[in-house]
């Protein structure tokens, strides 16, 4: 292909994204800290730079790229998380650093292992710049990966970020063998929390019922492939958070996200009981069974 792409991040997610572009004939450059190449060299004259690093690595990558990008280059963020210092999403960090570049958010029910196995999936490409969104849609679209565009990047990004918190709760639910009734209730009320905080950040309500919201929630909360699910499951089995993380392959972004969200919710009086209890669980202030009792014994209220 005449257009060239660089993917930053050689983990499971970055590798999966690389394999998707190869279906359409692209030969992406995949960069990691250990590859030995200079990052500024591998982003020159690229149509798109796709960031698939963990939340903790976003700032470092942005710092490395200062002065290295031309305004026409599209930045795609595929990271789900919140910056612990500023509470900003990855897209906000990228846009602040590169105000003249189009910023695109990629998010959806995309378990990387299933994508690498060639199983069908769908995702959302969201941006304020419709031309940039359509360009990235074309790069990734294939018979096995259906890509939709969306004009609500903040909603798409918040949906994919907050669902990681609910995934920890879902893993806890399954780890305690609470059954399908309890889990269905948990996911439904979890979606209500996603919508509540998403609207606070300016997301559109309909976005949270789409692929990046409800779709990603269902995939992540029902699969042992999800690292956030694994965290909740391990805690329900009586393990400490340190013990769970010692055997976890990769980063569970929901851990940091829970802490940030709990602080934002408290400061702005946003009702997020599941998030608050997951935060207490992660901090070791409450056990998994105690968290369930606390959820079930809250004051009676109307559903809406």
> What is the CATH architecture term of the largest domain?
3-Layer(aba) Sandwich
CATH fold name of the largest domain: Rossmann fold
Number of strands: 7
Largest sheet: 7 strands, mixed
Summarize the amount of helix as a percent range: 40-55%
Q: Order of strands side by side in the largest beta sheet?
A: 2-1-3-4-5-6-7
Q: Kindly report the average pLDDT value.
A: 95
User: Alpha-carbon distance between the termini?
Assistant: 51 Å
**In terms of quaternary structure, what is this?**
single chain
- What is the count of helical runs? 14
Task: Indicate how many domains the architecture comprises.
Answer: 2
Output the structural class. Answer: alpha/beta
Share in β-strands: 5-15%
**What is the level 1 CATH name of the largest domain?**
Alpha Beta
- Outline, from the CA principal axes? globular
Give the radius of gyration. 19 Å
Order of helices and strands: EHEHEHEHEHEHEHHHHHHHH
Name a few traits of the molecule.
304 residues; alpha/beta; Rossmann fold; N-(1-d-carboxylethyl)-l-norvaline Dehydrogenase, domain 2; 2 domains; seven-stranded mixed β-sheet; 14 helices; 7 strands; 11% strand
């Amino acid at each position: 292909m005449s257009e060239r792409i660089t993917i930053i991040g050689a983990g499971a997610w970055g590798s999966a994204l690389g394999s998707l572009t190869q279906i359409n004939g692209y030969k992406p450059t995949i960069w990691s800290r250990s590859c030995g190449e200079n990052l500024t060299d591998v982003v020159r004259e690229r149509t798109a730079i796709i960031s698939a690093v963990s939340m903790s690595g976003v700032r470092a990558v942005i710092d490395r790229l200062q002065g290295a990008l031309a305004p026409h280059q599209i930045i795609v963020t595929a990271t789900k998380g919140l910056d612990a210092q500023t509470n900003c999403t990855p897209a906000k960090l990228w846009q602040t650093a590169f105000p003249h570049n189009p910023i695109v958010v990629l998010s959806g029910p995309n378990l990387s292992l299933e994508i690498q196995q060639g199983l069908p999936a769908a995702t959302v490409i969201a941006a304020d710049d419709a031309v940039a969104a359509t360009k990235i849609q074309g790069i990734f679209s294939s018979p096995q990966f259906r890509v939709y565009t969306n004009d609500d990047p903040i909603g798409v990004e918040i949906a994919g970020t907050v669902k990681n918190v609910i995934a920890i709760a879902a893993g806890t639910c399954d780890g305690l063998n609470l059954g399908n009734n309890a889990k269905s209730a948990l996911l439904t009320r979890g979606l209500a929390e996603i919508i509540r905080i998403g609207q606070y950040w300016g997301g559109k309500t309909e976005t949270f019922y789409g692929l990046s919201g409800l779709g990603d929630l269902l995939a992540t909360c029902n699969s042992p492939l999800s690292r956030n699910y694994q965290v909740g499951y391990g805690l329900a089995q009586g393990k400490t958070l340190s013990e769970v993380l010692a055997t976890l392959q990769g980063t569970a972004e929901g851990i940091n996200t829970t802490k940030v969200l709990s602080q934002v919710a408290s400061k702005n009086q946003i009702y997020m009981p599941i998030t608050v209890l997951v935060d207490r669980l992660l901090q070791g202030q409450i056990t998994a069974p105690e968290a369930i009792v606390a959820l079930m014994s809250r004051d009676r209220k109307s559903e809406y």
